């Protein structure tokens, strides 16, 4: 459910394979943001041809308006796929 290469924030190498994604999974989904908590509490926002879920930093409540971490999803022939992670503060 991921499109490779997975684009990463400035200064981080793109994730190129499934094996690399599994190795870096905790850093992608639970380092700066708690993606599981965020995905439950947030609605995707349409961004051109993609959708984005904007998350708070892990130490902030999901009710915070400070949501700099963006998980982007694009529609492919085989369905929606995770395509990018970004931190707009970097």
Description:
22% of the residues lie in helices and 36% in strands. Strands 1-5-4-3-2 form a five-stranded mixed sheet, covered by helices on one side. The model has no long low-confidence stretch (mean pLDDT 95). By secondary structure, it is an alpha+beta fold. The longest helix has 13 residues, at 18-30.
Secondary-structure content class: alpha+beta
- Written as H for each helix and E for each strand, in order along the chain, the element string is EHHEEEE
Helix count, per DSSP? 2
Widest β-sheet, arrangement of strands: 1-5-4-3-2
Low-confidence stretches: none
- How helix-rich are the residues, as a percent range? 10-25%
Radius of gyration: 13 Å
Largest sheet: 5 strands, mixed
Q: Kindly state the mean pLDDT as a whole number?
A: 95
Beta-strand percentage range: 35-45%
Question: In one word, what is the shape?
Answer: globular
- Distance N terminus to C terminus? 26 Å
* Structure summary, number of beta strands: 5
């Amino acid at each position: 459910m991921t499109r490779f290469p997975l684009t990463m924030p400035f200064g981080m190498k793109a994730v190129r394979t499934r094996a690399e994604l599994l190795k870096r999974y905790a850093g992608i989904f639970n380092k700066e943001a708690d993606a599981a908590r965020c995905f439950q509490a947030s609605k995707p926002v349409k961004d051109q041809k993609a959708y984005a879920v904007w998350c708070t930093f892990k130490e902030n409540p999901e009710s915070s308006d400070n949501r700099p971490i963006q998980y982007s999803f694009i529609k492919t022939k085989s369905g929606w796929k995770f395509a990018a992670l970004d931190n707009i503060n970097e």
